[in-house]
Amino acid sequence: PTPGAPLLEVQAVSKHFGGLRAVQEVSFQLHAGEILGLIGPNGAGKSTLFNVITGVNPASSGRVQYAGNDITRLGAAQVHRRGLGRTFQHVKLLPELSLLDNAMMGGYARGRAGLLRSLLHLERHEEAALRAEAQAQLDRVGLGAQALTLAGSLPLGQQRILEVARALVADPTLLLLDEPAAGLRYGEKADLAALLRRLRGEGLTVLIVEHDMELVMGLVDRLVVMAGGEKLAEGTPEEVRRDPQVREAYLGA
Ligand code: ADP
Ligand code: MG
């Protein structure tokens, strides 16, 4: 990729569900090493756009470029393999499995299709390498000592951090998070934000979809604000906070 070129470039992306324009001609760029927040009220189209970027849902029109390559038509597994790691808005951990086993699930994407199936077919030495990597990522996020605990027994805040660790096992260049702080208590949100800042310091680029303005404002370098499927504003947290259209969308005033 060209130096200074954006890592991710969303170009006039639209996504329609029948007559519903969930995302309408949205464009933005994300640069390596940045934490970019995608915010907006419920129904703004954030998750829909997130799903287009990550290949879960095809765009109706527009383009998504990643590291200089067109990834618009790739499926979720292919997008993941290119280095876009992700978590889901609703926790999809396997509660009856250990943290370590859950984290190992994150390793399926690199060169493999199918989640459980691929784990079942791993060679013994591959499994050992994946287990070691999963443990290393649990250590990195501060959950290493609980590796053999069942995921379902963790408080929600730690489950979200486990999801991040699981995504990290695939060694992503860009980490995408859809409302990782939803339902968390204040202290848990602060822990998550601190982790994401640390990961940025370690070279990770982050795209975070978030409804919680407070979390986002203290975390991100830049924000894209959506409302009603369209991009309403873009800028630093300070710029966005002052924007009258944003104030209207959030505060109705
Ligand atoms: P946000 O994540 O910002 O809350 P969403 O992207 O989930 O918003 O939703 C944007 C709009 O698209 C909403 O009106 C929602 O009902 C609609 N929508 C989302 N997914 C689908 C789908 N699979 N089929 C039909 N409509 C959908
Ligand atoms: Mg959403």
From TrEMBL:
Portion of the full-length sequence here:
338 to 590 of 600
What is the official name of this protein in its record? Answer: ATP-binding cassette domain-containing protein
Coiled-coil annotated spans = none
Q: Where is the ABC transporter domain?
A: 8-253
What is the annotated localization of this protein?
Cell membrane
